[in-house]
Amino acid sequence: MGGLRFLLAQTGLALQARMHDRFNFVIEQVSNVVFYLCATVALAIIVMRFGRIGGFGLAEMMLVYGLNLVSYFIAGTYLWGVARTLEGSIRSGAFDLVLLKPVGPLVFLMARSFEPSMPVKAAGAFALCLYALTLHDIGASPATSIWLLATIVGGTLIQGGIMLAFSSIGFWVSGSRDLVELLIYGVRRTVDVPISIYPAPVQLVLTVVVPYAFVNYYPVLGLAGSTESAGMAALAASALAVGLPCAAAGSALWRLGLRRYRAAGG
């Protein structure tokens, strides 16, 4: 509980610090919105030019893209900075100072890595999801709301678990930052589109090894009524079921790396 209070307090301080220069903060957010708006428009143009992609029309494609973004931005609010800086702090010895803090090292690193622009971008991605649902001609209903909430929560747990797992590579591999950025940023971008456009081995990797496909593809497949079997229907509804063990696995790998680092330091 003390860790949560510390995290919230540091978040408030970080927001206050960023808001001292409100003009730059606003310009940064506007530029982010313009960037992702342009990416969405480009996606819409491609779909309208070539028709359905991987069996998905414009509404489903926007949902796939929006769900990937919103879960990534929520998870990355605190964890992306950890993933990018952990290996460097271990190499420089600065991580030793983190271990001396009165809160857990992960909580401290998350507080230090808080990125205020991420929640703003998450809100924009969420708005894109809502717009895509209206394009899909799905009325607001408890079932749709539950589906959207469970998918976003499950996707956030998946993205956060993967970020934490990949950032923990720094406990074992020197110079792993580039690898981490490739795995988290590069591989995640592969699910900006339906995985059905990829060869079967790639689909298998994105489903079993690095389960990004559960962030958006399988849930949208279920929403679109495109499931052809009971097995596929189960996959479509399992974002949250996959997210919980994924987050647990990331946390376990972090604790394992932390124990290894302490043993080496001792």
Written description of the protein model:
The chain is mainly α and 266 residues long. It has helices at 2-18, 22-50, 58-92, 94-99, 105-112, 117-135, 142-167, 177-188, 200-209, 217-223, 230-236, 239-265. α1 (2-18) runs parallel beside α5 and α2 (22-50) crosses α3. The protein is globular. The protein starts with a helix and ends with a helix. The model has no long low-confidence stretch (mean pLDDT 85).
Mean pLDDT: 85
**Rg, alpha carbons:** 19 Å
The SSE order reads HHHHHHHHHHHH
Structural class: mainly alpha
Number of helical regions? 12
Uncertain segments: none
Based on Cα principal axes, name the global outline. Answer: globular
- The tally of strands reads 0
Regarding quaternary structure, how should these chains be classified? Answer: single chain
Question: Which key phrases capture this entry?
Answer:
76% helix; globular; mainly alpha; 0% strand; 266 residues
Summarize the entry for a quick read:
The protein contains twelve helices and no strands. The protein has helices spanning 2-18, 22-50, 58-92, 94-99, 105-112, 117-135, 142-167, 177-188, 200-209, 217-223, 230-236, 239-265. The model has no long low-confidence stretch (mean pLDDT 85).
Give the SSE layout.
Elements: H1 2-18, H2 22-50, H3 58-92, H4 94-99, H5 105-112, H6 117-135, H7 142-167, H8 177-188, H9 200-209, H10 217-223, H11 230-236, H12 239-265
